[in-house]
Design goal:
Blueprint: E1 5-10, H1 14-27, E2 30-36, H2 39-48, E3 54-58, H3 66-76, E4 81-86, H4 90-101, E5 106-109, H5 116-150, H6 153-163, E6 186-191, H7 195-203, E7 214-218, H8 224-235, E8 239-242, E9 253-256, E10 262-268, E11 271-277, H9 289-299, E12 304-309, H10 318-327, E13 329-335, H11 345-351, E14 357-359, H12 361-372
Parallel strand pairs: 1-2, 1-3, 3-4, 4-5, 6-7, 6-12, 7-9, 8-9, 12-13, 13-14
Antiparallel strand pairs: 10-11
């Protein structure tokens, strides 16, 4: 993959700076070139050290907090990648969601509890996935630059495919199942890393009088999903809120699965009702899109379902889309690789042969409108 990522750790706690430094080094994909106790010092470091790739940025700090520094980075250092460090409080969650809107790649929760080893493994694993994605994208971009300079496009594409995109045999899709919807009974959405920004782009395109319910799974911990729902409700024309037990699914209502729980759909007569379950994690996450999608497959049997798989790491959503395709009239859109922060979940669905259409994030909202209007 090449050289390790150069990382700047910014946190007002010496203990956390040391902990995060160890976590970065443990990934073996990054190295901490410096640390800073607040935003002002970090800004000076950015001026002094030109080759910083990634900034681990605390939300709350004296002198200049994480949001203030992030605004400056977005303007003056747009090539730098920012990963927020957040606490679990409501205030931290609100600011972290704001940071994701401003362009932060992702966030990690500060260590909690007394199990230092478990906390280190959790944060190291999360950073490892993010760093690997950054390095892969960087390497891919270098290959494209070489291709343009040498004009030997075919040779470079072969190298890129062999190095970064190993051949994966896609499952054959039953042509009878690959249908274009003439109507939509429900829209289901799955998102993870990079999801808050992607969700905003999609939902902002939808009109207030949309006559379809929207059920969303965004991988986030408790409190964060509530803040995300409130933010999306304020910034979009549709009504969005965090789901709760017993909610009736209604046209024009967007419901986001609450962090730390699985969201399911249950049929009660002619009504569809939300259920909230505190069961085991699936793919290491809770809520999981697979849980929601499989319940929708049972509750909306033979109905028209539009599934949207947005940016995110892992494979959550693939099994759920497979269930939807087997029991409902499901059309699936996956976000394009170049517009994903992490091309994991959409890639998994695509390589399983379950994606009917690959769309850039900027155009997914319009595609939803076209499909609902029968212009698919």
């Amino acid at each position: 993959m090449g050289d390790k990522l150069k990382v700047l750790v910014v946190d007002d706690s010496l203990l956390y700076r040391k902990f995060l430094t160890e976590a970065v080094e443990a990934t073996e994909l990054g190295e901490v070139v410096d640390t800073a106790p607040d935003g002002r010092v970090a800004l000076e470091k950015l001026k002094e050290i030109e080759d910083i790739d990634v900034i681990l940025l605390d939300v709350y700090m004296p002198n200049m907090n994480g949001i203030e520094l992030l605004n400056i980075i977005a303007k003056d250092y747009p090539e730098k990648i920012v990963i927020m460090i957040s606490g679990g409080s409501a205030d931290s969650a609100q600011l972290t969601v704001k940071a994701l809107e401003l362009g932060a790649m992702d966030f990690i929760l500060k260590p909690s509890g007394d199990d230092l080893e478990k906390n280190m493994e959790r944060i190291k694993s999360h950073l490892h996935v993010l760093f690997a994605q950054i390095l892969t994208r960087r390497y891919s971009e270098k290959l494209k630059e070489i291709a343009e300079k040498t004009k030997d496009v075919s040779k470079i594409k072969d190298r890129e495919r062999d190095t970064i995109k190993p051949q994966v045999k896609r499952e054959r899709v039953d042509k009878a199942k690959t249908v274009k919807l003439c109507s939509v009974d429900v829209i289901v959405v799955a998102a993870s890393t990079g999801g808050p920004s992607a969700l905003e782009k999609v939902l902002m395109e939808l009109p207030s009088d949309i006559q379809v319910p929207i059920l969303i799974v965004q991988h986030m911990p408790p409190t964060f999903t509530k803040m995300l729902a409130d933010t999306l409700n304020e910034k979009t024309d549709i009504f969005v809120r965090e789901a709760k037990e017993g909610d009736e699914i209604e046209a024009g209502l967007g419901l986001i699965a609450p962090g730390g729980y699985h969201m399911v759909v249950k049929a009660e007569g002619t009504k569809k009702i939300i259920g909230i379950e505190d069961t085991c994690r699936i793919h290491g996450v809770k809520p999981a899109a697979d849980v929601l999608f499989e319940s929708v497959a049972d509750s909306y049997m033979d109905c028209d379902v539009l599934a949207i798989i947005l940016t995110g790491m892992g494979v959550d959503g693939t099994q759920g889309v497979r269930a939807l395709k087997s029991k409902t009239n499901c059309y699936c859109i996956t976000q394009s690789e170049e517009s994903c922060v992490v091309y994991g979940m959409p890639k998994s669905v695509y390589e399983a042969g379950l994606s009917d259409e690959v769309v850039h994030i900027d155009k997914i909202g319009k595609r939803i409108i076209d499909i609902i209007a029968g212009r698919a």
